[in-house]
Design brief:
Largest sheet: 8 strands, mixed
CATH architecture of the largest domain: 2-Layer Sandwich
Structural class: alpha+beta
Number of helices: 23
Shape: elongated
CATH superfamily of the largest domain: Histidine kinase-like ATPase, C-terminal domain
Mean pLDDT: 83
């Protein structure tokens, strides 16, 4: 038995399949990879000669192919063999570690990060292979700037895994006359559209529009002449000089419309030197759900990384979309997302702090912008307030809430402007609960706040702990009953038996019945929910009639929680319908009326009826109709007390 060490064999077809289906989101990234290689080559050449030209020229060919020319550092034969024939090898990855003594980023985050990231875009040595997603052949010719005496080199790779590497005669017309490289692609069948001039121009403008090098495309005019059209810009849009802030604001809004597709409500400048990051956060003009993932447009070293990059900002900052460029953030292998490391964590925290500071500053003083922002993005303010004390204090003074005394802020309720003593302010934890009690509480002048929407209950609880003098508390059944007038003792004696019967009628709904007098008179009943009673009801539901662990634990829970009923139907003795119901001598009618009032009180909260509750209402209505309507005539036509001639015979 023999043993030895062998090198891995790579199936290039399988690797291309992996790249196209699992690493890259679309074949469109092939052009980004070619641009990236060209820009990195130019960067390397300018390290040798600062005045070297910086150009990448895209030239669509008449046969449907594409040429990409760059004025970069080029390759020698040995470099081509070493780099192009070894999948995963890159000359640009971790070239030199950062020195914590001289580099602020390394000092802030602990050092050990590859210096190659600061200069070069590519790190993984697989970029050129992405061209096989659109081409069956890659032809690269190159002349070295490091070794001008070295002959030009030609590398030709095929999708089946073969490659050829040859040296060219310097006079060969295929060889570049100056240092740099030319990549030629021949399209795959059914992939020709990716190499069409219009597609190439659009992709180059999208990926390389911010690059600091001259990215141009050569296009053929109708008369046959060829012209070059530049696709890259000279300066980042948010770094350009403008006459004043108003002109800059208009220019950035127009840029947002072109790149992100919406007109922003406002913009927030972002500048984070530790990550080499600059950019703008644009405030969305319409509200979005808190669960919406924020997708940002991110460039690394001015090459577009992606238009849907997540994780750049904290989750609560879902109301902005960013356009940024950075030098120190690390891309994933596909270069379509950001790698979750210490640099990104630090950047996310710092960018979130910048957006937070802008939000606090904007809301601190009344203005058209602050009113528009608060109206549109109040959910974002709530999301930040539940975790940030400064925003919590501000939100308590600017956030409007629905209350039984009108739309108010917490400060309006807790600190009356007239200097009066602050009233006790109650809040409901659900919209349904608020709707059940709102009319009655408003008529009694009791301030009740609707905290049934997302973040509100947590926000109110935090404010109550932070400002105990504001007298904020969740509503309890006893709070409302305290402001409802009790019936006279004589009246209570009159209806004792009727109330007892009604309690029996609603016992199967786990609902108690009480009688009070309250405004408005038009409201016949109000349904109150006791949280402790709800817990007890759920505990009783756990108890099973069958023997077993569920029965044992259910019995224990039921014993601990006691017989309290979860719901309480408070009847209004000032309402004529209620008084008539209590005086009804017909027990089935009285029971049907009680069940109808119970279901009506449920409906008043806006909650849809469950199947059992709908059946309850149906039975009650049937009983009431049967008692109210006369008996139907006999289908045979015979009237009671009358006999037909046939019957007599």
């Amino acid at each position: 038995m023999s043993s030895g060490t062998d090198a891995f064999q790579v199936d290039l077809r399988g690797l291309v399949e992996l790249l196209s289906r699992h690493l890259y989101s679309s074949p469109r990234v092939y052009l980004r990879e070619l641009l990236q290689n060209g820009v990195d080559a130019i960067t390397a050449r300018r390290a040798l000669d600062a005045d070297a030209p910086a150009r990448v020229l895209l030239r669509p060919l008449d046969d449907g192919g594409l040429e990409v020319h760059d004025t970069g550092v080029g390759l020698t034969t040995d470099e081509a063999r070493d780099l192009l024939a070894t999948i995963g090898r890159s000359s640009k990855r971790d070239a030199d570690p950062l020195d914590p003594a001289t580099d602020p980023l390394a000092g802030a985050l602990g050092g050990g990060f590859g210096g190659g990231r600061e200069e070069f875009l590519g790190q993984f040595g697989i970029g050129l292979l992405s061209a096989f997603m659109v081409a069956d052949e890659i032809d690269l010719v190159s002349r070295s700037a490091r070794s001008p005496e070295a002959p030009p080199v030609r590398w030709r790779g095929y999708a089946d895994g073969r490659y050829e590497l040859t040296e060219l005669d310097p006079a060969d017309p295929q060889a570049p006359t100056e240092p740099g490289s030319v990549v030629r692609l021949r399209p795959l069948r059914d992939a020709e559209h990716w190499l069409e001039p219009g597609t190439v121009a659009a992709l180059a403008a999208d990926f390389g529009g911010l690059l600091p090098v001259d990215v141009s495309i050569e296009v053929r005019l109708d008369d046959g002449d060829r012209v070059r059209r530049r696709l890259s810009g000279d300066e980042l849009p948010w770094r350009r000089a403008y006459a004043d802030d108003a002109e800059r604001g208009r220019a950035l809004a127009a840029y947002c419309e072109r790149t992100l597709g919406f007109t922003p409500l406002a913009h927030v400048d972002l500048d984070l030197p530790v990550a080499g990051l600059t950019g703008v956060a644009f405030v969305l003009p319409a509200a979005v759900a808190p669960s919406t993932s924020a997708h940002h447009r991110v460039s690394l070293k001015r090459m577009l990384l992606g238009t849907g990059v997540e994780g750049l900002l904290p989750d609560w900052a879902f109301f902005v979309r960013c356009v940024v460029d950075a030098t120190a953030l690390r891309p994933t292998a596909s270069r379509e997302g950001l790698f979750e490391d210490e640099i990104l964590l630090a950047a996310r925290e710092a960018l979130g702090e910048r957006v937070r500071a802008w939000t606090l500053e904007t809301l601190a003083e009344p203005s058209p912008l602050s009113r528009a922002f608060l109206s549109t993005h109040h959910l974002a303010v709530r999301a930040l307030a539940v975790q940030d004390d400064a925003m919590l204090d501000l939100a308590a003074r600017v956030l409007p809430f629905e209350t039984t005394v009108g739309t108010r802020t917490l400060a309006d309720l807790a600190e009356p402007a007239d200097g009066a003593a602050p009233a006790r302010v109650l809040w409901t934890t659900s919209v349904e609960e608020y709707r059940r009690v709102a009319a009655v509480a408003a008529a009694q002048g009791l301030p009740v706040l609707n905290a049934g929407y997302v973040y509100d209950a947590d926000l109110l609880a935090r404010v109550a702990r932070r400002h105990p003098g504001w007298r904020l508390a969740p509503v309890a059944p006893g709070d409302l009953e305290a402001v409802l007038a009790a019936v006279a003792p004589v009246r209570e004696l009159e209806v004792t038996d009727a109330l007892s019967a009604l309690r029996d009628d609603l016992a199967d709904q786990d609902c108690d019945v009480e009688l009070r007098v309250f405004e408005p008179v038009e409201v016949p009943a109000m349904l109150l929910t006791d949280r402790d009673g709800e817990h007890a009801r759920q505990a009783r539901e756990v108890a099973s009639p069958d023997d077993g662990p569920a029965d044992v634990w259910g019995t224990v829970l039921a014993g601990l929680t006691g017989p309290a009923r979860a719901r309480r139907l408070v009847l209004n003795d000032a309402n004529p319908t209620v008084r008539a119901l209590l005086a009804a001598p017909d027990a089935p009618v009285r029971a049907a009326g009680a069940r109808s009032l119970y279901v009506t009180a449920l409906l008043a909260s806006g909650r849809p009826l469950a199947g059992a509750e709908a059946g309850l209402l149906d039975d009650a209505l049937r009983t009431l109709l049967e008692r109210a309507l006369p008996a139907p005539p006999d289908p045979s036509g015979t009237q009671p007390g009358h006999e037909t001639e046939d019957d007599a015979r």
